[in-house]
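Final paragraph of the annual report: two paired records, presented back to back.
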Amino acid sequence: MKFRRLIFAIILCLTLTGCIHHPETPSGYIHSWLGEYMFYEFEQPPIGSPVFMEYTIIIYEESGIYFANLIIDGFQTMSRVKAFVEGCSESIDLIFAYYLEDNLHERFNAGDILLTLFREDGEVMTSWEGLQPVIIESENPGVHFKLQ
């Protein structure tokens, strides 16, 4: 009986999040997320140097597994990360795998969710997790990354 409840709870969660894999949707259409996404932050503080950040996410498939390379450059930052991509056509998580060459700071651990991208009204929305933007106003979930 407990096993049935567990299975029911899992199916309910997947259905509510829209990520249940149907036979007519191979790989949950993660494939629809392939491409290069960019986000820029800029702030000119009243005192000091301007803050500029450029975030690039390149989502690709390799031997049936989906990955993302995150390249973040800007104010005191040069980050290079490889992440696993898990999810479906409506939402994906970028999960830290390891650091790439030329990375300067190490702050993530294997399995950390870096961010979630999801689609809403035709827009790509961002929910920040382990990876956080530099400018406070960018922290709220919203349209940040644009497909190039």
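The closing record of the year follows.
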Amino acid sequence: MTRETVPLPEGFGVEFDADTKFVGADVLFGGSPPRLLRLNAAGVRALGELRSGPVGSIASGRLARRLTDTGLAHPRPPVPDRPAEATVVIPVRDRAAALDRCLAALGDSYPVIVVDDGSTDDLVGALRPYGSRVTHVRRESNGGAAAARNTGVGAARGDYVAFLDSDDIWLPGKLATQIDGMRKNGWPASCTAYYLLRPGRPEIVSPLYQTGALGLEDMVWGCFVSPGSTLMFERGVFDDIGAFDTGLPRLEDWDWLLRYARKHALGFLAAPLARIDASPGKGAARMEAMLAYLWTKHHRDLGARDRRHFAAGLDLQRAASHYYCGNMLPSLAALLKSFLRSPTLNAALSVVIHNRLARR
């Protein structure tokens, strides 16, 4: 008579070992000693549950126990039920007026660090009404968004760090809702949907994903989750993934998410919890250099399918950049190239196209 596997308790998650390989949808290889684990249909469903969140059923609990007992994965205990400590980081340069609107919408539930990236306007005066709730960290010279965010994270305290751009605003309850989703699902980091504001046109909700976990196969398509104003992460995750790349004047958040997604799932909440200004991009020549840099940095670490989709995603960004600059022929050429690389329209590509068209 065989002893029934005792399931891992509800609320526990699993983190797959770095050497565990997914040979197919129903086969895993790894552990100690190495072994091949083949799953039946129920096991595949339980695996899907574990990859998107914590144990929530007896079947996923038993599979979680088996994975952890064999070394294919490691247990991730639930976060204690206590008030979370989070810090909001806002990088800003010469946007004193916009920053006042941004801070007024935040309330006073969480501490805020404003990183002054070499501003020349009266930022100190704009911050004075907020008193000790807002910590002002000044960089004497402008280093760009990557350097400013790195400075802000270095000064942050508590369990979580959340980013907010100075020209965007959060809806009430954004942080509490996001923290609750991360704790319930075991996500080390998450983003949310948002309202995209377009002057003279109706706002839209973007991106069009459902609540759940996003992986590297999603991130290769583009930085459509607007992490500058929706990203929140556990403080330790930043130390694990590393700082933003200061060699990138833009797209530093896409670079960071690509690095993050190679190790962890990114949680996504479909409820729009921010309002984000749809501002056009920079010059096409400058963007081209950044796209080439991203390709060189990441393509060797991607499988064949993800590499092809990454190239298509870069082409979409290239098309958008030319469009903003009024270069219609190069924009159409880049868009066509993207479709030729991946002619089958999937969910991730639909999200990217939706975002790009909405910014017209």
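The longest strand covers residues 266-277. This concludes the annual technical report; the extension proposal builds directly on these records.
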